[in-house]
């Protein structure tokens, strides 16, 4: 029996539904999963019959970020390149991209959520940058998305301290649009997606492009900066210590190198 695919993609009624499908790993991202996700987003963005794209996770988590247990091949640059493709595809898609935030989103998973145009959240979800705990900086556009949503001071507080942002607080800060309990979550997701699918897609596209031009004026430059410096950090002693601490389930002892 073949293994389950890491990402499920289905298009029905002008909606492409993308599901991260590694529930046993809280949908942590591997090189294979990010490649499939990027291609699915690009294909849906280019398909004129698709009017809405949704992203969610299987099981109890949205996405735990990069799969640290699987390791990062090479210098990490290739993986970051695919994460940048994902961020670019979401932001440039001429149609709404909706995160159906069914559970925790950490690291690159949180960046993925914040790249989306709307976020419908389950009451048990939370967002957490998580990069500082392994000696890294945000990637996948995280520095741009957190800052655009929160402003400089609040973004620095969240990204430097790395504390989880519970979903109620995330809604207060404008990071998510709706929060629902388990009984209402699925129905609320359907209502939001159906409303967008029946809306003025061309007007949505123009509005989205204008808002992104104002809020994210140099996303390509930010992605390039993140890539350059993340690759440097991936080879540093602090990242090695962060990985060791993660594996040994202990606090890291960083030396600033």
UniProtKB/TrEMBL annotation:
UniProt keyword terms in alphabetical order: Lyase
Enzyme Commission number(s) from the entry: 4.2.1.17
Stretches that traverse the bilayer: none
Source organism, top-level taxon: Bacteria
InterPro entries: ClpP/crotonase-like_dom_sf, Enoyl-CoA_hyd/isom_CS, Enoyl-CoA_hydra/iso, Enoyl-CoA_hydra_C
GO molecular function terms listed in the Swiss-Prot or TrEMBL record: enoyl-CoA hydratase activity
Pfam hit, one: ECH_1
Family of the protein in this entry: Belongs to the enoyl-CoA hydratase/isomerase family.
Protein name: Enoyl-CoA hydratase
């Amino acid at each position: 029996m073949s293994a389950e695919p890491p990402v499920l993609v289905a298009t029905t009624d002008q909606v492409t539904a993308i599901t991260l499908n590694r529930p046993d790993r809280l949908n942590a991202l591997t090189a294979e999963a990010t490649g499939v996700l990027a291609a699915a987003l690009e294909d849906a963005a280019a398909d004129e019959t698709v009017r809405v794209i949704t992203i969610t996770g299987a099981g109890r988590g949205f996405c735990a970020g990069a799969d640290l247990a699987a390791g990062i091949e090479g210098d990490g640059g290739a993986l970051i390149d695919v994460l940048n493709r994902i961020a670019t595809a979401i932001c440039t898609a001429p149609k709404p991209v909706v995160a159906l935030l069914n559970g925790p989103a950490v690291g690159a998973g949180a960046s993925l959520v914040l790249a989306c145009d709307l976020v419908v959240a389950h009451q048990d979800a939370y967002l957490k940058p998580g990069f500082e705990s392994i000696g890294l900086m945000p990637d996948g556009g995280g520095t741009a998305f957190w800052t655009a949503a929160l402003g400089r001071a609040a973004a620095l507080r969240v990204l430097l301290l790395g504390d989880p942002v519970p979903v109620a607080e995330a809604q207060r800060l404008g990071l998510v649009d709706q929060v629902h309990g388990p009984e209402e979550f699925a129905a609320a997701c359907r209502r939001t997606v159906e409303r967008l699918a029946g809306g003025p897609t061309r007007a949505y596209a123009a509005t989205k492009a204008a808002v992104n031009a104002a809020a994210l004026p140099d996303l390509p430059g930010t992605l390039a900066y993140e890539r350059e410096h993340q690759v440097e950090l991936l080879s540093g002693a602090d990242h090695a210590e962060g990985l060791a601490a993660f594996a040994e389930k202990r606090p890291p002892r960083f030396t600033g190198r």
